[in-house]
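Much of what follows relies on a compact textual record of a protein's fold. The record below shows the convention in full:
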Amino acid sequence: MAADAQAGGVAGVNLVMPTRIVIVGSGGREHALAWKLAVEPGINEVIVVPGSDAIGREPRVRCVPGVDPLDPVAVVAVARREAAELVVIGPEAPLAAGVADALIEAGFAVFGPTAAAARIESSKAFCHEIAAAAGVPMARAGAFHDADEAVAFATDLAASGRGVVVKADGLMAGKGVTVCDSLAEAERAIGELAAGARAGGTGDRAWVVVEERLTGREASLIAICDGRTAVRLPMARDHKRLLDGDRGPNTGGMGAYSPLPELSDEAGQALLAAFHRPILAELVRRGTPFRGALYAGLMLTEDGPVLLECNARFGDPETQAVLPRLAVALGPLLLAAARGDLAPALGASGLPGGRLPTLPGASVAIVLAAAGYPDAPRSGDRIDGLEDAAASGALVFHSGTVRDADGSVRTAGGRVLSVVGRGPDLLAAVTAASNAADLVHAAGLQRRHDIAAADTATSQDPRHAVASGAMDR
């Protein structure tokens, strides 16, 4: 049974500590969640479905391989067998597949929204609809199921002097976005998505969103939500482009860092009030309350912050950079959110202010990606230097690796590892992460060398000649 612990802040309120947690997923985000939750007070075991060899090597963590995370029946069966007191769903695809719905119907406390609420991520058109109804600013955009109409809208944006961004409407693992440098590029991107839509038989459903291109610095703000109440994690910044200087194709994310020097605690609270709370209220109004991690990808423009996108889960790689900074147990808050009781739990923890306390210093995550990523990532390349990186003091979270019978670790995905450095400030953290990443080797391994460069003094390295974190999208 979950353990009750009397906490300061609210008399008579018990803070419930889950003792057995199931995490759904197998990537670097899930590795970071397992690493964080497994060492918290009261935790007996964290079970990860399907997990990976690397995740299963964490203390008090066990994986259940061979289970399809998109199969609601299979995941419910594991949760029952393991007597889970809390189920945390990591990736977006199981949410869209209704895994949370099945677990909730089976009586489990689930941190992760229903498929209906998760449409905030699984449909970019729906995200725009919700934001408009909630009064949350987003870029000018249109959703289309006709290629000619999409091209006409893109032409109008280009003619008015605005750039164009083309996005696939559905889930694309962070890679279905083309930031277009010309109208011709926008037309090509729309044509490619149209071909996929015809092959997929989308019918009259919108399959492409065409947006005005915004300029500024990006910021990621993730909040733990119980449907009405939200508490924010530390601010972070992701780097989407593959190459230094924010060049190359979009990816799922090549690195992240926290904190953001230009955003104070007060600014973070204002962003939570301006973006997350109105969206939560609109979802409640529609009968689809959101319980889980609501991610707001923001562009900090000259005219103020604008919402780029919402995700229905913890960001990746932001999670790898943010969780090491938390100075509070995460498990009780996730359980309280899953039960719809976040407000009293925050009071019981002495955290009524809407943000979680952090450790001093900074954290930087550098993603190492396989050869050929993002278009055709290559699997099977041997990875060396992992022990050396860990011995340097870095955290190494595995996103796409397998271990051979002889003990060799090999690439088995697009983004392979997140190497996380910590330090008293951003410069120390990025130096620690970069030095550790330099110790890891595999044929064709790709990484950026300018993570957090815009906010540190690392630009003396010629590889950092173009400052990162400022882009248009």
Remarks:
- The radius of gyration is 21 Å.
